[in-house]
């Protein structure tokens, strides 16, 4: 597929269990993600895929297990820590800031690069002004990359669904993440939009070397672009490996087709 | 035809991000400032200054403060007047107790005290939202007014609880006539409005809006919820505090804590609903509307020969009905109507 | 110690009145998710209508009450039609602000029609100590308060009966559970909301009569609504028993605080003490005593 080199393990989740009251969302999940790879998480609805992403970037706190990111082992992540260490993500149900323009939404992705205080920003002097321009330049590059020039100043609430998904990706990329978590980036899209989105995901991975963990229902897409696949069902891991292996795994086939 | 941006190309990001990107707008704003600073002081009557212009400007500033918190950061507050009271009484005490305190510094310190109170009462916003937060800000309102009434130190042991604001003097120049007070208020309001605009177009403003629109996503991309919300409370309360001090020093002159009651808080809330939630221009439009409406109503009531008492009740009804009307018909208020008008003007006379 | 109990009982009984106002809030909040800030204005309007009809038109109490009831029911349906229906599916904060607008409108309307003077309202129940209790224990317990508590209890019983046994009650509970689902099984949502607002209007009338008889019918009645807010925080916004228990706790604790703490800090702490109590509670248990725990999903 490409010449990029898959590196060492960058993220390792170990024996993660997550419960909401009496409901078990995840049970003893372990897997790892290597640097620069595209790792897919698949499984039927309610299998715990989104919960898994939420555990990785600290939105949910698992009751058991550990997460190792870049060699540091933790009981659980903290959202802010995750962001600071270069984990960015998109959400299943678009989580854009609906009252803001596309440009402002993407600019929020740069917030961790801002050093000036709110007082400097209020006075619009020196550093604050310089940072605004510098970050705008980076954001414009991303706008170019994802072909969003024409909607730059449009409030996101007015955009069609497919474009919103792209803006969300742009906002995540603005943080220059080392790892990108994508929650169903292609759900609800038509074939063309899906192709575009696939292209963007692959380009991101190739050009910036971003490690990608992705949840997707479209098996064609998953088998095409991912290096390795984790399969979840009822909060348990039932398969793990390269697409070809997973595809022929009897356990996985059973979960998907319900055959005995 | 006249109002059009064709031919005005932006060649840098700084130019593209300026406050008024269209040249005609910049000319209009310059003209407006010229009128406000030069023409009005020469032309207006003292009544016009003290009954309309000064309260309009001061309440605009308070509305701007509330708009930062409610409109931009999405935290509903029913305690605006309490923060104004803190600003006013803090400024009074700084002037009273510190020898040679410059009055502008006293206003700033009053604002900072209000900001500190804002941070304390903003703390619950980290755990609660919506109505619960509204209840918590109501508590602020009652508690602060109670405190200022009950602790005699704040009012310098005045037996009636009423304080008389000191003479406003800056560098030997006394602001004692309505026209002079107007100019002082106008300058302060313009500077703070500019600062507010700068904030909302920078990262701090984006952090407020991000938390307002979707707090979980804001947290995930790296904003700290606590810092963001408390900054909003602090900045908002600072603005309200300065407005409160001006309200005492340049408008009322003699004040009791009860002047900053729940009714004033509601009035300021109405200003931002009618003017435009999440809009700096809207704060001014709303304040103008709410200041002028009672005057207009009493004029009508007078002309029709109804008893005077009708005015205040009619005022309540009209306010109430207008709030509901705006929430239903134009939730973004007068500012949005203004914007729509401008868009139409840009296309005129060839709308297709 | 006897004094303590006297204060406690007086507090509990005035808490019953808070509960009555809070009950109106809970009804509307449960059915439509609207936090009705205008409940206090409704109490004021209802009481003023009864008092005004008596004073200005010479109606007897028993003739004035049904008329006021019709007014409140009409108001309920009208509010649903004019305010709520156009705002359906809006943010709950928007709806809340709309009810603040409604508050101002009703306050202006009530005083425009009936004037701004304080009116007396006689219900024929005297505010004197219960002799039986005084003789047996030596404590002063107001007869009026006890009757008010009984009326409140009866009202809650009737409401419970309506909710649990009638068709409209079932529809109401369905709507409270899930608007969409209720609509999809053919429950006329708007009609149910109209009914709930009308019932809340009647609850406001009862509260208005009792409060008005006690303190005089005056503008200050609208502040009762502000007291109901901490009651709701304590009890949870969706729970009828919560409103009752919350009302009792707030009533009792504010009286006790005023009498036993007030003198040390200059008095008048009744105004904010309930809020502080409610806020402290809020930090420990955000969903209230009886409220449902809210799990936010993303």
Secondary structure layout:
The complex is a heterotrimer of chains A (260), B (352) and C (298).
Chain A: E1 9-20, E2 23-34, E3 38-42, H1 49-56, E4 64-69, E5 72-74, H2 79-84, E6 87-89, H3 102-108, H4 118-123, H5 126-145, H6 161-174, E7 179-183, H7 191-208, E8 211-215, H8 219-225, E9 228-233, E10 236-241, H9 243-247, H10 250-257
Parallel strand pairs in A: 3-8, 3-9, 6-7, 7-8
Antiparallel strand pairs in A: 1-2, 1-4, 4-5, 9-10
Helix pairs in contact in A: 3-6
Chain B: H1 13-16, H2 23-43, H3 46-72, H4 80-97, H5 103-122, H6 131-150, E1 163-164, E2 169-170, E3 173-174, H7 178-200, H8 203-213, H9 215-220, H10 225-252, E4 254-255, H11 262-275, H12 280-304, H13 309-329, H14 333-347
Antiparallel strand pairs in B: 1-4, 2-3
Helix pairs in contact in B: 3-7, 3-8, 3-10, 3-11, 3-12, 4-5, 4-6, 4-10, 5-10, 7-10, 8-10, 11-12, 12-13, 12-14
Chain C: H1 2-32, H2 39-57, H3 61-84, H4 92-114, H5 131-137, H6 143-165, H7 167-177, H8 179-184, H9 189-215, H10 224-235, H11 240-260, H12 262-265, H13 273-284
Summed up, what is this model?
The complex is a heterotrimer of chains A (260), B (352) and C (298). Chain B is an all-alpha fold and 352 residues long.
Give the strand content of chain A. 15-25%
- Strand order of the biggest β-sheet of chain B: 1-4
Query: Biggest sheet of chain A, in brief?
Result: 6 strands, mixed
* Termini separation of chain B: 14 Å
Average pLDDT of chain A, rounded to a whole number, is 90
What characterizes the major β-sheet of chain B?
2 strands, antiparallel
Strand order, sheet with most strands of chain A: 6-7-8-3-9-10
- CATH top level of chain B? Mainly Alpha
The CATH first-level class of the largest domain in chain A comes to Alpha Beta
User: Which series of helices and strands of chain A comes N to C?
Assistant: EEEHEEHEHHHHEHEHEEHH
Binned, the helix content of chain A reads 25-40%
Task: Give an account of the 3D structure.
The complex is a heterotrimer of chains A (260), B (352) and C (298). Chain A has ten helices and ten strands. Chain A is an alpha/beta fold and 260 residues long. Chain A has two domains: 1-86 and 177-260, Rossmann fold (3-Layer(aba) Sandwich); 97-176, no CATH class. In chain A, the strands form two sheets. A six-stranded mixed beta sheet of chain A has the order 6-7-8-3-9-10, with helices on both faces. Chain A has a four-stranded antiparallel beta sheet with strand order 2-1-4-5, with helices on one face. In chain A, helix 3 runs parallel beside helix 6 (161-174). Chain A is globular and about 60 Å long. Chain B has 352 residues and is mostly helical. Chain B has helices at 13-16, 23-43, 46-72, 80-97, 103-122, 131-150, 178-200, 203-213, 215-220, 225-252, 262-275, 280-304, 309-329, 333-347, and strands at 163-164, 169-170, 173-174, 254-255. Chain B is built from 14 helices and four strands. Chain B has a single domain, classed as ABC transporter involved in vitamin B12 uptake, BtuC (Orthogonal Bundle), CATH 1.10.3470. In chain B, the strands form two sheets. In chain B, strands 1-4 form a two-stranded antiparallel sheet. Chain C has a single domain, classed as Orthogonal Bundle (ABC transporter involved in vitamin B12 uptake, BtuC), CATH 1.10.3470. In chain C, helix 1 (2-32) packs antiparallel against helix 9 and helix 10 (224-235) runs parallel beside helix 13 (273-284). Chain C is mainly alpha-helical and 298 residues long. Helices cover 74% and strands 0% of the residues of chain C. The chains are: A alpha/beta (260), B mainly alpha (352), C mainly alpha (298). Chains in contact: A-B, A-C, B-C.
